[in-house]
Amino acid sequence: MNNLNSELITNRLKATENNSTAIRVKDYSILQDLPSLLVDFQYLDLAHLLINWSYEYPSATNLLLLAVAHSKNGTIYNLVADALLSSIATWNEDSDCSVGAGQVFSMAFRKFSGFARDFVADRPEVRKAWGLKEGIDYHSLGRLSEDEKWNSETPLPDISSNSSIKCLLRQQGIPCGPLNDEWDDKAKRALAYFQLEHGLELTGELDNDTMLELKAAREEAQSENGFGSSSNQ
User: Fold this and answer.
1) What confidence category does residue 230 fall into, taking pLDDT thresholds of 50, 70 and 90?
2) What is the pLDDT of residues 75-93, one digit of tens each?
3) Are 84 and 47 in contact (CB under 8 A)?
4) What are φ and ψ of residue 4, in 5° steps?
5) What number of CA atoms fall less than 13 Å from residue 120's CA on the CB side?
6) Taking Cα atoms as reference points, which of 170, 117, 152 lies closest to residue 224?
7) How would DSSP label each residue in 22-91?
8) How is residue 39 annotated by DSSP?
9) Residue ranges in 114-228 assigned as alpha helix (H)
10) Is 138 strand, coil or helix?
11) How many angstroms separate the CA atoms of 42 and 40, rounded?
12) Which of 22, 31, 150, 225 is the 20 to 30 A CA-CA neighbour of 114?
């Protein structure tokens, strides 16, 4: 990681966060020199930085992302889009950085394929920019209904079947369809989203790395909800 550039950008964002005029009118031009510095970062390092910046300086980070989207430099906005994708749940519609993130995703949309394309396409900014229709141009993961949300007082089953994997996915807030052993396209998209959140290859299929992450996520959830460890180690 380029620590000098990281410190420089952090200081600029800190100062910009206090610039109420620039924030109000979304004047990203005051940060237009920063996007070129981002190419010195690996995308996973950049992902962590963006998350930290978004929590510390949300409005300024939004301006930085807008500057990236308007840079007209594919190398820059494609790199930043990859970094955003690895933490896509952070950049939801309620995020202060949602507008900037959405514009970066819109600019880089052509580079995505498969499950990643579906996840990016399911953003309102991208749908509008590209005129996408759900079910025709992409498949939406959707949202959990109130009835589907996992009851934290219910222990999770051991990870031993498709239905048990679906229980965990639902507990993690990921829509995956009925809690049965059928492994359909919706279940594959749900598992791919889990893989995305955990830095794994987006296959929608169960492999050794994914199984390890599923078990670790289950143990963490069990511990947080007071159920202790299980025999599923």
Assistant:
1) low
2) 999 999 999 998 887 887 7
3) yes
4) -65, -45
5) 27
6) 152
7) HHHHT-GGGGTTSGGGGGGS-HHHHHHHHHHHHHHSHHHHHHHHHHHHTS--HHHHHHHHHHHHTTGGGG
8) G
9) 114-121, 124-130, 162-171, 185-197, 208-224
10) strand
11) 7
12) 150
